[in-house]
Amino acid sequence: MDLNTTSIGPNFIRNIIEQDLESGKHAMVVTRFPPEPNGYLHIGHAKSICLNFGLAAHFGGRCHLRFDDTNPVKEEQEYIDAIKTDLAWLGFDWGEYEYYASGYFETLYQYAERLVEQGQAYVCDLNGEQIRAYRGTLTEPGVESPFRNRSVEENLDLLRRMRAGEFSDGSRVLRAKIDMSAANLNLRDPVLYRILHAHHHRTGDRWCIYPMYDFAHGQSDSIEGVTHSICTLEFEDHRPLYDWFCQTLDIFHPQQIEFARLNLNYTVMSKRRLLELVNEGHVCGWDDPRMPTLSGMRRRGFPPAAIRAFCERIGVGKSDSIIDMSVLEDCVREELDQSAPRAMGVLRPLKVIITNFPADAEEEFVAPSHPKNPGMGNRRIPFSRELFIDQDDFMEDPPKKFFRLGPGREVRLRYGYIIRCDKVIKDPASGEVVELHCSYDPETGGGNLPEGRPKVKGIIHWVSAAHAVSAEVRLYDRLFLSANPTGDKQTDYRTQLNPQSLDRLTNCLIEPELANAQPGQAFQFERLGYFCTDREENRGQALLFNRVVTLRDTWAKLQENATATK
Ligand code: ATP
Ligand code: MG
């Protein structure tokens, strides 16, 4: 695949950049994707990635990958590696433009000294609780710190001794001297540096003071010459502070533009909560196929092109909204409909004996691997006396509209013969149907229908018992029962977890050609949905498939039925 060719459709940010280029404000567009390496990327990040890389591609500019690694306590190399893997998988290439906020620690520190020298920052000995109390509220102005009027010399001396490690964690901070009665709370002397004797995954033990995110993020953009610093709406109130830093320090001034973050229903997206789901064992890792993470979606079998199409489809706006999960699943269906070869798989097998077919004989039908793409070739489908069909395709006492198999009824085997159910064999103890005795019509092979023969409405999928390959299939449902699991502040979102979000079917049978499937390869099991071989757990011949999505939006249908029967 060509990297970074995924451009972006019209949106308000693209318009702003267009005007900036026309007016000559910038000659070249530089954007960045700035993850904090404290978790894995999720589908919300994909929106930001597609936007930042897409804009850069559209305008022939470049997009940086910058890790905002200012919090040594929560950040790890594992997350950095995972973020890079996910970005590349999604189809984006940052080339040589890989940066780290920690790479600017010295510059940021020099900026801090400059502010002190200009009389615009001071060392404050209030503790965290006091600073909060002194800050005031939206309706009341804040109170100035008693340390606010220290001399430049004293501040510089204290800041240098903070850096030198003379003071304990939390005993002092460096604050900007702005305005304790500003209407915007972010301007009430925000903290710039804190003391933290912690090992950083990149700078080791070189530092025992660390810049706050707000003091690092905007300046990192500035250092990199980012022209358009695109972020989510909650940073709108921080913009005046970033602007103040750039003006006061007299450094390059990126333009910040905010957009509405992506919210999806039936899931959670904050990294803190995703980390809880992983650590508390509600899912089996960041790449659990039920997770909204990119690694989870990859493992589930979502094609990266579907995620890019989704990000384009939902657009970029200024007002928060919740996108329906079905929009994402539709994008996955559309992509897989084109790319996934067809196959037959039986999830809950029911044995069928074709009583008028010899036990030692076998036949083979040929079927296209894809109905609309002959280039994908054909597959061979063996037929023999013993078959398996899905339990769902038989009913002992079927209603009129059930066009599958029932006693005395006919059905067509996909690509094969028409069969009639002559006898139903039950387990004498449980009464459960264990086997069907059927007869086939030899004139109807390969979809053939002799003239004058009554038509058969139903077509079902099947496999030949002697040829089929066993597989485990995992069916996934929504991870949460409620559309907005964090919506009600009174209830813990974990109580909303769907106990039936994973269904493991261990006795499945699939057509023999799939025995050679590669890890991560997706197929359409005809009539059932899209399934992808697991990337992690498939070893040797033990085939494990994840259901990617159903063929249609069965969830909407289930909900309808549930409300109808209430
Ligand atoms: P947290 O979940 O802890 O709030 P975060 O999701 O903001 O963290 P970052 O690593 O700071 O995580 O995000 C990197 C970039 O991705 C930021 O520019 C952020 O604006 C963007 N981003 C994060 N979540 C979303 C989302 N749901 N929709 C769009 N962009 C997002
Ligand atoms: Mg963030």
What would you say this structure looks like, in words?
With about 575 residues, this protein is an alpha/beta fold. It folds into three domains: about 250 residues, Rossmann fold, CATH 3.40.50.620; about 160 residues, Ribosomal Protein L25, Chain P, CATH 2.40.240; about 120 residues, Ribosomal Protein L25, Chain P (Beta Barrel). Helix content is about 25%, strand content about 25%. It has a seven-stranded mixed sheet with strand order 12-25-26-27-23-24-13, with helices on one face. Helix 11 crosses helix 12.
Bound molecules: adenosine-5'-triphosphate, magnesium ion
In total, the number of strands is 27
Structural class: alpha/beta
CATH architecture verdict of the largest domain? 3-Layer(aba) Sandwich
User: Helical proportion?
Assistant: 25-40%
Radius of gyration: 31 Å
Query: What is the molecular shape?
Result: elongated
CATH superfamily of the largest domain: HUPs
SS strand fraction: 15-25%
| Average pLDDT score | 94
CATH C-level of the largest domain: Alpha Beta
Domain unit count:
3
Strand order within the widest beta sheet:
12-25-26-27-23-24-13
Biggest β-sheet strands, sense, barrel: 7 strands, mixed
Number of helices: 13
Task: Name a few traits of the molecule.
Ribosomal Protein L25, Chain P; alpha/beta; 23% strand; elongated; 13 helices; Rossmann fold; binds magnesium ion; seven-stranded mixed sheet; binds adenosine-5'-triphosphate; disordered C terminus
